[in-house]
Design goal:
There is one protein chain. It contains 18 helices and 7 strands. By secondary structure, it is mainly alpha-helical. Among the domains are: 51-177, Pleckstrin-homology domain (PH domain)/Phosphotyrosine-binding domain (PTB) (PH-domain like); 324-502 and 541-563, no CATH class. It is globular, with a radius of gyration of 28 Å. Residues 717-732 have a biased composition (Basic and acidic residues). This is NIBL1 protein. Belongs to the Niban family.
Length: 751
C-alpha cells in the first residue's frame, strides 16, 4: 500500500518532468551550447573483456553459522560475483551470490558495524558479557552494511589483504552508486528532477545520501525512508529473544520488505516509463513544430515570476549565502585539487617507470607488457586509492548544518569519479599517440625520447582539462549546497503564490513549461552570478592551478580526435606476433585482470572451503540465502573456529583433495531466478607475491532480478579436463563469470 502511494505520486512528477526534459533536450540539440573543448581523448569502452579483481575471501554463512572460503570475481561492471570455490568458477557453475553494492558502506571493524546495528533498532542493545551479533575469527573483517538490505560479512588473514579488498569494495560501491546513466539526456534528468520535486513536496530539501544505484534502487530507498520507521515501531516491540537475536530478526525483516518494495517499485516505474515513451513521438513533434512559441511563452512566464521572486531572493542571497560562498569553495577546492594533482603524479610516475624499464630491457615485447598494464591504470583501485583518499579531507564543518547538507559523501564520490575519468582520458590519449609513433621509430633511444615527449604533451592537456572539470564541479557543488537552502528559505513567502502564474501558460504547451521548474530557474539565477564570480576569482588568482575562462588552449594536435575514433588498441594482439591466436589463448587474453592478487590462487590456501566446518560434518547443501523466518546467529565459539583453522593447516592434503573431488556443490538458477543484489562480498585470503598482469578467467555476468533464490544443485562428478584445485591444473578454456548485467543493474541482496 505504501509503495503504491509513493510510486503514484512519484510517477505523476516523472510524467511532468519528462515533458520538460524532452523539451530541454531538443532545444539543446537545436541551439547547442558552447564550452571549452576537451583536449584529452575519451575511451568509449574502458574495461571491455577485463575483470577488476578476483581472489579468495572468507564469508560468514548465516544459515549454518560457519565461515566459508569463497572465490570472488569483480567483473568490469563492478558487480560482485561469489562462487563456491575457484573450481566451480572454472567449470562455469552458477555463482552462489550476486551483489550490486549501491548504497552500501564498507566497514573494517566489528565495532563500527555493531554501532550501526545498535542504532538501527533503538532500545535493543546487547548487555555486557552477552555474545554480539557478529564475531570474527581474524583481526581483519570486512563488512558491507546497508540501512535496509541484508548485510555481508567477510574476513581475510592480513592487514595488507584487508586494505586491498577495502579499496576494491569501495570502488564497487562508488561505481554502483553512480547507477543512473548520464548518457540518457531525457530519462535521467526527468528521473532526478522528479525525485527532487517529490522530496521537496514533503518538505525535504538538501542532499540525499540514498540517491544511489539504478532507478529502481533509488525508488526503493525512497519508499523505505518513509516505511521503515513505521515498521520499526510496529514490529520492534514484538521481537522475541535476546538482543542479538532480535537484531538479526530485524535485519531479516528489513531485507525481506526491501525486496518486496523493489519488485513493486520496478513494476510501477517501468510502466510509467513505457507510457511516457509511447507519448514521446507526439511530444517531440509538437516541440519541433512550436519551438519558438514555447520559448517565448516560457520567457514571458519567467519574467513575471522573476518580478515577484527576485527581490526576495536577492535579499536572502545577500544575507545568508554570499558571506559563505568563498568558505564553501575553499573547502571544496583544497581536497579536490589535491586529488587531481595526485592523479597527475601517479600517471607521471607510471609512465616514467615504464620508460626507464624500456631503457633497461629494450624490447618491444616489454613495452607491450607495460602498456597492457598502463591502459587500465584508472581502474586499478589500489593504485588510485591515494587519489581518492584526498577527498576524505573534505569537511564543511558548521556549513554542513547551516545549509542542511546531511553528508559530504555525494561530493566526495562525484569528485572521485571525475578523477578516475580524467586519469583514463590521459592514459588513453598517451597510448593513442604512442601507438601512432611506433611505426616511425628507429631504435630504443628514439622510443624513449618519444615516450618522454608524448608524456609532456599529455600532461599539458591533463592540466587544461583538469581545470575545466574542477571548475564545473565546483559550480555544480555550490549550487547543490545553496539552492535547496534558498528554496527552503523562500518557500513560506513564495511557494503558495506560484499557482496564480499557471494561467500564463498556454494549454498546448503545459507539458513543456512548469511553473515550479521556472520558479527554480529564477532562484538559481539569483545566486549563479555570485557563484560564477567566486570560481572566476579563484582561477584569476591561479589557486590550485585553475586556469582562467579566457584562456583557450589551441589544439596542437588537430588530428588527435580523429585518432580517437579508430578501433581500440589491443597491444598484446597487435604486437604479439600471433596474427590469429587460438581460441583458448584468446580467452586467456580476455581474462586479463586489472589488479593482481596478493597470493597465487593456484597454491594451497591457508585453509580451505571445509576448514571451518566441524570435523566429520557433511558439507551443507542448502542455498545460502536465509529464510526470513530463520534466526541468524554467529559461530558457536571463536575458539572453536580457531581450532578448526589450526587442524586444517596441519591436516592431510590427501583427505582434502578427496573431499574436493567427491563432487562440487552446485547451485543453478536462471537469470530470472536470481534475487536482488544487495551487499558486496569480497576479500582475498592470499599470501605471497603476485604481479599486476595476473590472468584470471572471467567475463560478463548477468544482474540478479530480485525475487528468487538459487536452488541447490545436485552434486556433479568433476570434469577431469579441469584438473583439481590443489595442483592448480585445469583446462585451457576459462569460463566466463555469470551473474551481473552489462549495466551493472540488479538489486540488493544475493541469491
Amino acid at each position: 500500500e505504501r509503495t503504491g502511494k509513493v510510486l503514484g505520486e512519484f510517477c505523476r512528477c516523472y510524467k511532468e518532468q519528462f515533458g520538460v526534459a524532452l523539451f530541454n533536450s531538443v532545444r539543446y540539440e537545436i541551439e547547442g551550447a558552447g564550452g571549452p573543448q576537451a583536449q584529452l581523448l575519451h575511451r568509449k569502452v574502458p574495461l571491455e573483456d577485463h575483470v577488476i579483481y578476483s581472489g579468495n575471501i572468507f564469508q560468514y554463512i548465516e544459515e549454518n553459522k560457519k565461515w566459508r572460503n569463497r572465490f570472488c570475481v569483480v567483473p568490469h561492471n563492478y558487480g560482485l560475483v561469489l562462487y563456491e570455490n575457484k573450481l566451480a568458477y572454472e567449470r562455469e557453475q552458477p555463482p552462489r551470490v550476486l551483489v550490486n553494492s549501491a548504497g552500501y558502506k564498507v566497514l573494517t571493524s566489528v565495532e563500527q558495524y555493531l554501532e550501526l546495528v545498535n542504532n538501527s533498532l533503538p532500545g535493543v542493545t546487547p548487555k555486557s558479557g552477552h555474545s554480539p551479533i557478529l564475531k570474527c575469527p581474524t583481526d581483519f573483517p570486512l563488512v558491507l552494511w546497508h540501512p535496509y538490505a541484508r548485510h555481508y560479512y567477510f574476513c581475510v588473514m592480513t592487514g595488507k589483504e584487508q586494505e586491498k579488498w577495502r579499496a576494491v569494495f569501495q570502488d564497487c560501491v562508488r561505481h554502483c552508486n553512480n547507477g543512473i546513466s548520464e548518457d540518457s539526456k531525457v530519462e535521467a534528468p526527468a528521473f532526478t528532477d522528479a525525485i527532487r520535486m517529490y522530496r521537496q513536496s514533503k518538505e525535504q530539501y538538501g542532499t540525499w545520501d540514498m540517491l544511489c544505484g539504478n532507478e529502481t534502487q533509488v525508488l526503493s530507498n525512497l519508499v523505505m525512508e518513509e516505511l521503515l520507521p513505521e515498521l520499526r515501531s510496529a514490529i520492534g516491540p514484538r521481537l522475541k529473544g535476546k538482543a542479538p537475536e532480535r537484531q538479526r530478526t530485524w535485519i531479516q525483516v528489513s531485507d525481506a520488505v526491501y525486496r518486496m518494495v523493489y519488485e513493486l517499485a520496478k513494476a510501477q516505474y517501468d510502466a510509467a516509463v513505457a507510457r511516457c515513451e509511447q507519448e514521446r513521438p507526439q511530444l517531440e513533434s509538437t516541440i519541433r513544430t512550436d519551438m519558438d512559441q514555447i520559448i517565448t511563452s516560457k520567457e514571458h512566464l519567467a519574467s513575471k515570476i522573476r518580478a515577484f521572486v527576485l527581490p526576495k531572493a536577492e535579499v536572502c542571497v545577500r544575507n545568508h549565502i554570499q558571506p559563505y560562498i568563498s568558505s564553501i569553495l575553499e573547502a571544496l577546492m583544497t581536497p579536490t585539487s589535491q586529488g587531481f594533482a595526485e592523479a597527475r603524479e601517479v600517471f607521471f610516475k607510471e609512465v616514467t617507470d615504464m620508460n626507464m624499464n624500456v631503457v633497461n630491457e629494450g624490447s618491444l615485447e616489454k613495452l607491450v607488457e607495460y602498456m597492457e598494464k598502463l591502459s587500465h591504470l584508472a581502474f586499478h583501485p589500489v593504485k588510485m586509492q591515494s587519489c581518492y583518499e584526498k577527498m576524505d579531507q573534505l569537511k564543511l564543518e558548521g556549513l554542513q548544518q547551516r545549509f542542511d547538507v546531511s553528508s559530504t559523501s555525494v561530493f566526495k564520490q562525484r569528485a572521485q569519479i571525475h578523477m578516475r575519468q580524467q586519469m583514463d582520458d590521459a592514459v588513453y590519449t598517451f597510448e593513442t599517440l604512442l601507438h601512432q609513433e611506433l611505426s616511425k621509430l628507429q631504435g630504443k633511444d628514439d622510443l624513449c625520447k618519444s615516450i618522454q615527449r608524448i608524456l609532456e604533451r599529455v600532461l599539458k592537456k591533463f592540466d587544461y582539462d583538469s581545470s575545466t572539470v574542477r571548475k564545473k564541479f565546483f559550480r555544480e557543488a555550490l549550487l547543490q549546497i545553496t539552492i535547496p537552502f534558498l528554496l527552503k528559505k523562500l518557500a513560506p513567502t513564495c511557494k503558495g503564490e506560484l499557482a496564480k502564474f499557471q494561467e500564463l501558460i498556454f494549454e498546448d504547451f503545459a507539458s513543456f513549461i512548469l511553473v515550479e521548474n521556472t520558479y527554480e530557474e529564477v532562484v538559481l539565477q539569483s545566486v549563479m552570478k555570485d557563484i560564477m564570480q567566486a570560481v572566476k576569482e579563484a582561477a584569476v588568482q591561479r589557486k590550485h592551478n585553475l586556469y582562467r575562462d579566457s584562456m583557450v588552449m589551441h589544439n596542437s594536435d588537430p588530428n588527435l580526435h580523429l585518432l580517437g575514433e579508430g578501433l581500440p588498441i589491443d597491444w598484446s594482439e597487435e604486437y604479439s606476433g600471433q596474427p590469429e591466436p587460438e581460441p583458448a589463448a584468446e580467452r586467456r587474453r580476455r581474462a586479463k585482470q586489472v589488479v593482481s592478487v596478493i597470493q597465487d590462487d593456484e597454491g594451497a590456501l591457508p585453509y580451505g572451503a571445509e576448514a571451518l566446518l566441524q570435523p566429520g560434518s557433511p558439507e551443507p547443501r542448502q542455498p545460502e540465502e536465509a529464510h526470513p523466518g530463520v534466526p541468524l546467529s554467529p559461530p558457536d565459539a571463536v575458539q572453536e573456529i580457531r581450532e578448526a583453522l589450526a587442524q586444517e593447516s596441519l591436516g592431510d592434503g590427501a583427505g582434502a583433495e578427496e573431499r574436493l573431488m567427491n563432487g562440487t556443490e552446485g547451485s543453478g538458477a536462471s537469470e530470472e531466478g536470481l534475487l536482488l543484489a544487495g551487499a558486496a562480498p569480497r576479500a582475498a585470503t592470499q599470501q605471497g607475491p603476485a604481479h599486476d598482469g595476473d590472468r584470471v578467467h572471467c567475463a560478463t555476468a548477468a544482474s540478479p532480478a530480485p525475487g528468487a533464490e538459487i536452488p541447490s544443485g545436485t552434486g556433479r562428478e568433476p570434469c577431469h579436463q579441469c584438473g583439481d584445485k590443489e595442483t592448480g591444473k585445469h583446462g585451457d578454456s576459462p569460463p566466463q563469470p555469470r551473474g551481473t548485467t552489462e549495466s551493472g543493474e540488479g538489486v540488493q541482496t544475493e541469491f
